[in-house]
Every structure is written in C-alpha cells, then in structure tokens.
C-alpha cells in the first residue's frame, strides 16, 4: 500500500540564480555550487539543517553533466600521455561524484544512490527516494538532480504543506504522459506540478523517448 | 509480511571464463587461477602498471565491447533461470561506472560528438528494447558499489510489490580512461593483486559483466523454478568523508553491514565475500568493518576476495561477487584469496589463503565500497 510522504517545495538553482544567492563555498565545478546551494535551501525549508543526518539518504539523478569533465580528463591524456591524467579531475568523472560531494558537505550518511537514466533521472531518483522513505529504509532523503545549467532538490520525509502519495516508475504508461527531452525539462515539469496543486490528488506522469515513465501523485 | 526474494538465475562473463559460462568461472575461482596479466587492449607505456584483469578470447564481433559483455551475461542469466520469455512486468536494474566509455574515447580522439552508445543508460535501454522488458528499467552508478546497489534496488522493487521478477547486475569494460585515472592516483599494482597481504601494492583494474535473476519467492515456486538462495538483506551508506579514500574507521561500511544483517535477521554469517581490492587503505578498512560488526567472532568467519584473481571490474564487481556467493552457497566451497603470502599484522582475519575451502555455507555477506564513500552490503541466506 502506498504511503504519504512529506515532500518539501522544489528548489532550483542554476546559471540564472544571482551569485549572491548561491552558497559561497569552494568547488571544482560550478554545478557543485548549484547542487549544494539547492540542497542547503531544501534542507532549511524542511527544517532539517540542524538535525542528525545519520539516516538521511541521498538519491541523485545525473545525465550528461559530467561529460565535459570526462572529456577534460581524457583530453589531458591525449595531449600529454600518462602524465596528462589529472588526479584532481579523475574522481569527478564518476557519476556519483556529485552525490559524494553532497554527502561530504552536508554530512548525510544514509543510503546514497546515483541514478543515470537520461531525462527521467530526476523523477526516477524521486521514485526511488519515495520507495526508501515510505518503506522505512531511511527516515528522510534528499532527492535531487544536476544538469550543466542547474540543480534541483526536494527533501522527502520532512517539509511542510505537501505530500508525495505515490511515485512509481515503469516501462510503459497508460494515458497522457508529458514527453521530456532533457532533465532541465523535468525540473520545470515538477515545478509546474507543485504550482498547479489543487485540493485532492494531483497525478502527473512523464516519459522519455525510450519508453520509460514515472507517475506520481502530489497533494496539499 | 515482507515479500521474500530468491535468486533463480545467474549469468556472468569474467576474465576467468571469457564467456564460457558459470561452470568455467567456478572451476577457475575454486582452483585459484590468476587472470590478472598484461593488458593487450591499449598501450600501457608510461603508466604505473601494465597489468589488469582483461577478458581475453571472447569474440565480440562488430558489437561494442560493453554491449557484448552485457548481452552475454544477461542472456546466460535468463537462460539459467528457466524463464523462457520474460514476464510482462519484469524489470532491469543495471549498475555501471563508465558505460560505453570506449565510444567516448573514440569520439574524443576523433573530435566528434558523443554517440548514444556512450551513455550510461544506453546499456539498460538496449537490453530492455531487445528483450521486451516492460517493468522498471534503471541504471545506477555508484562507483565500485554499482553492481551491488543494482541488486539491492531490484530487491526493494520486488519487496514493495512493484515487480515479481527483476534482472539485476552490472557491467564495465577495461579502458585507458580508467587505467590512466587510477595510474594517476598511484593505486595500481605492478604485478599481482594481494588483498589483505603485507606489502600489498594496489589494485588491478578488470572488466566483465554479471546478472542475477531475482524473483518473488511464491512467483518462482509457482512456475517450478529452481531457487538458489534468498536475498534477505541489503543496505548502503555514505561515509561523508572523502572523494576517493574510505573512512579509516570503517564506520560507513560497518553501518551498511549491520543494517543488511538486521534486515536478514542474521547475527553472523558463514562466509564474507570482501571488496578486497588489494589497496593498503581499503583492505585495512574492511578488516576493521568486519571486526566492528562481528567482534571476536570475526576471527571465525572465512573471508575471501575474488579480486585477487580477476581484478576490479567496477560496476560488474558487486554483481560477479554476488553470483559467486550464490555458487558458494550452492556448492559449499569457498574460493581462496590468492597471492596472500606475506601477512599484515593489522589484517589478521581468516582470508582463506591459497586453497578453496569446503564448508557448509548457509549465509553469506558480500560487500562493496566505492569512490565518494559508497558502501553497500548484501546478505544471502539459504532456503
């Protein structure tokens, strides 16, 4: 039986966010700054910033954000051979690098999962985060995603005013599902879902071109 | 009552069997065969090592190497399960670290755009399309814990009722990309992988793929499937400590192991399949984790590392090791940790050196740890 899980409002931080609205922290790539700023805002909004985070999970969706870093790393090798391999950049070529930065910066020690599923990565991360919290595997979770242009986060198991009643991924979906071509579109999609909330259950579905879909239900 | 989950099929491709199947793999790991040798896929001049666990003698034809590995392991697993066609809601979870990296290397060399086959998700998407998979399809990438986490996520999906059958596992190929990175970190051994040994000199990269078919127990029973064992516990945790190095006190891995054991209602196990990469830090950290969790009883639990024989196959590692654990439980024989000659006084557990050990194994723990402080643990128990 699906269970209601508290969900915080969506935070999106990106190139359009004024620099003075971002966290002033040292990062290697600006996308880390986007993610850490959004995550920090989500945790404050959910009242989680000063709580014990031993059982707070992280589920992060990534798509092509680390591709330029991988190319950067490999071009060093192509240019200079073995000596061109940068031990600073190399750890960032792993898809979970951003989730790792999040756990280190915010002290989150619960389950940490990175999902790499194209445009639906964020919504699939939301589906898995919902599964973890609703089944009691973690008490709370920070769910997010990062693209080259922006990062988006929500918290699950905390927050005021909204509930995630169900969130399921599947290969096919009946009925209308919004086609998403990029993960940035999924940020807008979820944002519109929050903005358009009416009384009762608000069921939304999104899919990608490969036939994957995520269906979720939000309520006030 | 929580839905129980059993393993009904295993399929793998490793440097030890080169696609010849699980019996060849089993024969090799129980004989302590070393598959780590000179790399032939690319030029290793100038790197800190020239050895890896490379799959040699497996013909991929025109197919991309990663796809070929995945196809072989996937079809072997499904065949082993006796499922025939996949049921309508069956899903797939794939763990991978670098996916189609060979396509990426080629594109960057040529200055062309990255092809679809490079994407981490393309492996799972392609398998889903080829085999008409209509349940959940997800790619998980949690560094060296990817394969273990893929199985864990599949377990959760079945437990929650979202699927009755899942195929879960991992695959990665050997690439100069990864080789150069680990060389830059001075993490590679120059010759042998010596997990837990005194004077151990680092890891050897590897490659391969493995999948498990896992099912809700009654679903398996109803179709008369042979169930190898149950997957009765899983957890993961984050060290929240360092981008590459593990927490030296092993708090994160200990936590994941405890949570997985709690879920499985096991207080101890008959065998531990270690992450056991052969690096100074990892092996010490793991030993601490086992002692943290099991106390003095840790000295009585056999531990071994298959990476001593095949190297570290990244996203495939956790899945290959889980498949090995299934076979350990089925056959009552623990594979050895090879190359453990000189002892490290700080790694003083029973690592089954030199020879395979015959013993009844009713419960098994397999662990993985990865870059970014990822820790994952799976518990398998007898029926």
Strand order of the largest sheet of chain B: 5-4-6-7-1-8-14-13-9-10
Radius of gyration of chain B: 19 Å
Unreliable spans of chain A: none
Structural category of chain B: alpha/beta
Helical percentage of chain B: 25-40%
Strand order of the largest sheet of chain A: 1-7-10-9-8
Shape of chain B: globular
Global Rg of chain A = 17 Å
Q: Proportion of β residues of chain B?
A: 15-25%
Distance between the termini of chain A: 20 Å
What would your notes on this structure say?
The complex is a heterodimer of chains A (220) and B (383). Chain A has 220 residues and is α/β, with parallel strands linked by helices. Chain A has a five-stranded mixed β-sheet with strand order 1-7-10-9-8. Chain A has a five-stranded mixed β-sheet with strand order 2-6-5-3-4, with helices on both faces. The longest helix of chain A is centred in the N-terminal third of the chain and has 16 residues. In chain A, helix 1 crosses helix 3. Chain B has 383 residues and is an alpha/beta fold. A ten-stranded mixed β-sheet of chain B has the order 5-4-6-7-1-8-14-13-9-10, sandwiched between helices. Chain B has a two-stranded antiparallel ribbon with strand order 2-3. Chain B has a two-stranded antiparallel sheet with strand order 11-12. In chain B, strand 9, helix 9 and strand 10 form a beta-alpha-beta unit. The interface between A and B is large, with 57 and 61 residues.
Notable characteristics:
heterodimer, A: 220 residues, alpha/beta, B: alpha/beta, ten-stranded mixed β-sheet, 14 strands, 32% helix
Task: Annotate the secondary structure layout.
The complex is a heterodimer of chains A (220) and B (383).
Chain A: E1 5-6, E2 11-14, H1 30-45, E3 56-62, H2 67-80, H3 97-106, E4 112-115, H4 121-134, E5 140-146, E6 150-156, E7 163-170, E8 178-179, H5 183-195, E9 202-207, E10 213-219
Helix pairs in contact in A: 1-3
Chain B: E1 5-13, H1 22-31, E2 37-38, E3 51-52, H2 65-81, E4 91-95, H3 101-110, H4 122-130, E5 137-140, H5 146-159, E6 165-172, H6 176-184, E7 208-216, H7 217-222, E8 229-238, H8 251-264, E9 271-273, H9 280-294, E10 303-304, H10 307-310, H11 317-331, E11 333-334, E12 357-358, E13 363-370, E14 374-381
């Amino acid at each position: 039986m699906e269970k209601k899980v508290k969900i915080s409002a969506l935070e999106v931080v990106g190139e359009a966010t004024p620099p003075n609205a971002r966290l002033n922290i040292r990062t290697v790539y600006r996308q880390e700054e986007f993610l850490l700023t959004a995550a920090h805002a989500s945790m404050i909004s959910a009242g989680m910033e000063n709580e014990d985070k031993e059982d707070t999970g992280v589920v992060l969706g990534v798509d092509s954000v680390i591709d330029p870093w991988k190319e950067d790393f490999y071009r060093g090798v192509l240019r200079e051979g073995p000596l061109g391999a940068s031990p600073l950049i190399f750890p960032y070529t792993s898809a979970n690098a951003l989730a790792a930065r999040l756990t280190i910066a915010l002290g989150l020690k619960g389950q940490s999962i990175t999902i790499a599923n194209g445009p639906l990565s964020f919504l699939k991360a939301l589906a898995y985060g919902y599964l973890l919290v609703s089944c009691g595997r973690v008490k709370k979770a920070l769910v997010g995603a990062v693209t080259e242009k922006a990062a988006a986060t929500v918290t699950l198991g905390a927050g005021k005013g909204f509930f995630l009643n169900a969130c399921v991924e599947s290969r096919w979906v009946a009925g209308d599902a919004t086609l998403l071509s990029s993960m940035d579109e999924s940020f807008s999609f979820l944002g519109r879902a929050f903005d358009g909330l009416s009384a009762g259950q608000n069921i939304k579905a999104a899919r990608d071109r490969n036939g994957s879909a995520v269906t979720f239900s939000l309520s006030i | 009552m929580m839905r129980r989950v059993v393993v009904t099929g295993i399929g793998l491709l490793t440097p030890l069997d080169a696609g010849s199947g699980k019996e060849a793999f089993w024969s090799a790991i129980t004989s302590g065969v070393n598959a780590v040798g000179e790399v032939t896929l690319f030029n290793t001049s100038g790197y800190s090592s020239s050895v890896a666990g490379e799959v040699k003698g497996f013909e991929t034809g025109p197919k991309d190497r990663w796809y070929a590995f995945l196809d072989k392991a996937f079809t072997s697993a499904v065949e082993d399960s006796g499922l025939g066609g996949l049921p309508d809601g069956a899903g797939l979870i794939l763990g991978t670290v670098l996916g189609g990296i060979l396509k990426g290397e080629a594109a960057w060399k040529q200055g062309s755009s990255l092809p679809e086959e490079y994407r981490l998700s393309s492996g799972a998407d392609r398998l889903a399309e080829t085999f008409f998979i209509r349940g959940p399809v997800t790619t998980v990438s949690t560094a060296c814990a990817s394969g273990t986490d893929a199985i864990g996520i599949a377990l959760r999906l079945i437990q929650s009722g979202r699927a009755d059958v899942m195929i879960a596992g991992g695959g990665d190929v050997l690439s100069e990309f990864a080789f150069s990175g680990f060389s830059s970190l001075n993490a590679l051994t120059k010759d042998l992988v010596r997990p837990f040994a005194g004077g151990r000199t680092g890891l050897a990269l590897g490659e391969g793929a493995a999948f498990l078919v896992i099912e809700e127990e009654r679903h398996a029973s109803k179709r008369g499937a042979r169930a190898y064992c149950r997957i009765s516990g899983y957890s993961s945790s984050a060290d929240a400590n360092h981008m590459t190095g593990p927490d030296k006190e092993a708090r994160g891995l200990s936590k994941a192991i405890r949570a997985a054991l709690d879920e499985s209602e096991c207080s101890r196990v008959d065998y531990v399949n270690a992450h056991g990469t052969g690096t100074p830090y990892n092996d010490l950290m793991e030993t601490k984790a086992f002692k943290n969790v099991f106390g003095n009883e840790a000295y009585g639990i056999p531990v071994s590392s298959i990476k001593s024989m095949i190297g570290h196959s990244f996203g495939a590692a956790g899945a290959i090791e889980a498949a090995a654990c299934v076979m350990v439980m089925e056959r009552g024989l623990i594979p050895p940790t090879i190359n453990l000659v000189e002892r490290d006084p700080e790694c003083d557990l029973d690592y089954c050196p030199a020879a395979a050990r015959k013993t009844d194994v009713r419960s098994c723990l397999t662990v993985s740890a990865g870059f970014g402080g990822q820790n994952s643990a799976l518990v398998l128990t007898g029926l």
